[in-house]
Amino acid sequence: MGERSPLGAIYRLNGKVLLLGCGHGSNTSLHLAEYRQQSPPRGPSGSSVRQPDGTSRWTTWIDVVIDESDFTRLGKDYEGTGAATIGPVGDATTRLISQRDLVDFATAWLATHRPTRP
After folding, report:
1. First vs last Cα of the chain: how many Å apart?
2. What is the spatial distance between Cα 44 and Cα 62, in angstroms, rounded to a whole number?
């Protein structure tokens, strides 16, 4: 979810985020801002990785600890700037956002609003 991930590529290409019927609590692009923090907390992470013979093996590594618990509040503050286009698509509320603008905002917001962690 860092600079070399698809999220980083979307940022470099100045792509858009479309939230269709969901809020910022489900906005994966905000994790890029977590990776951009000065000293993001790190901890164990893991996933099942498919092996060449078709079996899977659990692999662990140390990575940035992701935490979307404040993404809804972060998104509300971002929308308060007027930078998001919000409207209906059918019965769903839709948000269209510049991913680069959002990630830049979120990077600064997280540095200010998240408590410093050892």
Report:
1. 22
2. 4
What are the pLDDT digits (tens) for 2-59? 899 999 999 999 999 999 999 999 999 999 999 999 999 999 999 999 999 999 999 9
Is the alpha carbon torsion for 68, 70, 72, 75 positive or negative? negative
Question: Tokens 């078709």 identify what position?
Answer: 54
Phi-psi region for residue 90, left (φ > 0), alpha (ψ -120 to 50) or beta?
left
Question: Which candidate, 4, 32, 28, 6, places its Cα nearest to that of 17?
Answer: 28
And the tokens for 47? 């996933």
